[in-house]
Amino acid sequence: MDLGLTEKVALVTGASAGIGYAVAQRLVWEGCKLIICGRNGDRLKQAEQSLAAKEGQILSIIADVQQAKDSQAVVESALNKFGKIDILVNNSVGAKFSRDAVENISDADWQGVLEGKLMGYIRMTKLVLPTMKEQKWGRIVNIIGTSGKEPSGNLIRSGVSNAGLINFTKAVATQVAPYNVLVNCVNPGMIETPRHQEYLEIFAKAGNKTETEIKDNLIKRIPQGRRGEAKEVANLVTFLASECASYITGISIAIDGGLSSSAF
Length: 264
What we know:
The chain has 264 residues and is an alpha/beta fold. The protein has helices at 18-29, 41-51, 68-82, 107-135, 156-176, 194-207, 211-220, 230-240; strands at 9-13, 33-38, 58-62, 87-90, 138-143, 181-188, 191-192, 228-229, 252-255. 47% of the residues lie in helices and 16% in strands. Strands 3-2-1-4-5-6-9 form a seven-stranded parallel beta sheet, sandwiched between helices. A two-stranded parallel ribbon has the order 7-8. It starts with 8 loop residues before the first strand and ends in a 9-residue tail after the last strand.
């Protein structure tokens, strides 16, 4: 199936590992020119080399897009290199797992969470919209965890941020739809990534159990009986970024093996 992505310019944040890397890899396969960014320079360089894009088709930038100046620099570099941005995939980590009671979470902690992933996605969206609206074509896909829909006491801070991002996604989608700029979000559940491995380690330590015990208990809750793979999320993101999804905007799709649908 031709997804209509050949020569499209895609910017993927947090692309050095996990879901971000899998998305970048799939977009390269579909013929996109690519801008990838991440905070770890060594890991980003490895990602760039393993993506094996054609010469001149990929730009990697060390940046923390939760910082305003870095976001601006990434978008400016992308436009200088390729002259446009057709696709933005916002993908960055949220707040860490925490069992803190809400009364013990300081204002500074809340401000840090909201200034991080939430404002990071908002800034990147604002920065790419002018060129997308001018060219009357654009796709923005926000990777947002399921805690935005399914609140968890262990993820209260990131859940609040993610809920805000889902609202933001839907609201912006209505504003920019007349310009053929489509904005959607994807909500991954338990996906085999370095980030999820960190969660297993934290849960195991907190519960005085082995990582295998924690993983098996989590998998029992998933109707499909397994964790997802990063490439499965990448397939969905790539579809939403393509011409095949030309009448889809403002939606939030869970990709979690049926976990959220079985919660009620």
